[in-house]
Amino acid sequence: MSAQESMQRGDALRKSGDLDGAIVAYTEAATTAELGDVGAMLKLARTLVKLERDDDALVWLRRIVDATESFTSWQAAAALTSTIFNRYTPTAKRTARLAVLGSYTTTQLIPMLKLAAWREGVVLETYESAYGQYRQEILDERSGLYAFKPDVVVLATHAGDIMLPELTDDPAAAVSAEVSRWSGMWAMVRDRCEAQVIQHNAAIPFDSPFGHLGARLTGSQRSLLQQFNTALGEAAGNEVGIVDCDRLASLLGTRRWFDDKYWHVAKQAVSLEALPVLARHTSVVLAAALGLSKKCLVLDLDNTLWGGVIGEDGLAGIRLGAGPDGEAFVAFQEAVLALKRKGVILAVCSKNNDADAREPFEQHPDMRIALDDIAMFVANWEPKSQNIRRIAETLNIGIDSLVFVDDNPAEREIVRQHIPDVDVITLPTDPAGYVDALSNYLMFETKSFTQDDAKKTEQYQARAKVAELESTATSLEAFYESLQMKAVIAPFDELHLPRIEQLIGKSNQFNLTTRRHGADVIRGFMSNDDCVHRYIKLADRFADHGLVSLAIAVRDGDALDLDTWLMSCRVIGRTVEDAMLATLSHAALELGCTALQGTYVPTAKNGMVKDIFERFGFAPVDATDGTTVWRYDLVANGPIESSYIQVPTREMATDDAA
Fold this sequence. Notes:
By secondary structure, this protein is of the alpha/beta class. The strands form three sheets. Strands 11, 12, 13, 14, 15, 16, 17 and 18 form an eight-stranded mixed sheet that branches. Strand 14 (about 545-555) and strand 15 form a beta hairpin. Helix 1 (about 5-15) packs antiparallel against helix 2 (about 20-30).
């Protein structure tokens, strides 16, 4: 039965009052194609909402975001999402209070932001400033913005509100003054409410009185806007998120981005047609700020990295390098490598004989991806869903951190159904479209880029080797000693602040309180004489893992109280926790404290550390709604010591860090 026939049957059943039957028919229509029939999905979601089957409806509303960028479809889906959120708050990876301050009307944008954020696992509570009141909201300490107490503030501005002259003899001064105006507002927001800031940069209008001459005049307004966007990004650094609206306008088409009719009627600076694109991209920058970026790209091989089947066509028969298809596969590999250089982990999951699968990597002259670029290589005849779970377990990352790419629609659908937490990229039939499909997947967006990100493949390859070593070790003690671990432990500093903020923003499994502190709050801890803050860098015989753990503790009476304690999942099980508690024990004694105190706040992902304090001899002193406060008596028990990772003295750590 075709999608249209299923839709018609669903409509008839719905009119007759048989809503359960209508749901079955609409589901058939919605799944006839891989991305689904959007009309059927909307009717299915409406019916589910009417029956108050809200969780089921939300699944289909998320799929609509992936299937279309139509304004009318998004508007309808956003309205249904709002209906559900008004009834209850669904379980989500994150919840956040989001304030949108606009220099134009943002009423249409905000519901779409809620929809797009839900696609990434975030439930938003929102606040909207009145039209054009963003400056007043920021300057007035008694404004609704600060009363709302946002976690994130989005400055939704447009080129018309960028104060640059039509022509100037001193472009550098004009741009610098305008960037200073905006960065001053960022600082005020972060100082007054400790919120993260996301800034929309200027989509540059096509119209210019100087025409093509403007490209040669550095003082023309069009040129100034280009310089402003660049300087704004530089000023943002790792602390303010930027949504590159000018890039989005180029992607969509400048004439489609702007619509003078809606500007004159409703002061809507972004066309209705462009709002889903803007909402989607803003949501992924928001998700990155909340630590929800994806970590690992899992790659199929045959007809994905090269054309043909290596086990049947042989090395000379696969399409790679020569001809249009061969060049397209090379371009796709280069796009994958660009993600790897950004810090995305690469893994292989292929139905193949292992030796056959490795042959192109080892011998084909046009292969761009090498075996050394792959953190984990799995080629066998087991179900791919099973192998993907194995990859996540071996690399010790959450299954929802993985993204799967495969040319085979059947394999993609199996993974979608069996591992719904894994995002699946749909590839077109023509390999010339592979690069575009990869670039249109947005959840590899990150808030910052650090040296540790560039080393991730080496670090995760080492993790796989460590897993192999652990399986052959005769005892746990022998395993730890064989790793030959070395650590640098030191107080926080500005050099390492981007990585520290990144870890705090995204660590979930080994994270005792899951408090998401931004850079300004961290600096506050760094300037507090009653605060002890330490990071750990770890290296072993396989790799330098970089900065992998940190703790923030504040003196509270006779105890040093842990505000934040977390560790990267890639070094869990290496006794790094022993080294951190040993360091904090000695720091507490230096401050005159007689006890260490820590709190475990349970979340959906940190169950692995619920017993960590008990393991080290802490005693529970308070428990409320699952949150437990633990205390360790340093006088009675003595400081905690580290047996397998040498803990340097404070002076040694500082010297090593420098």
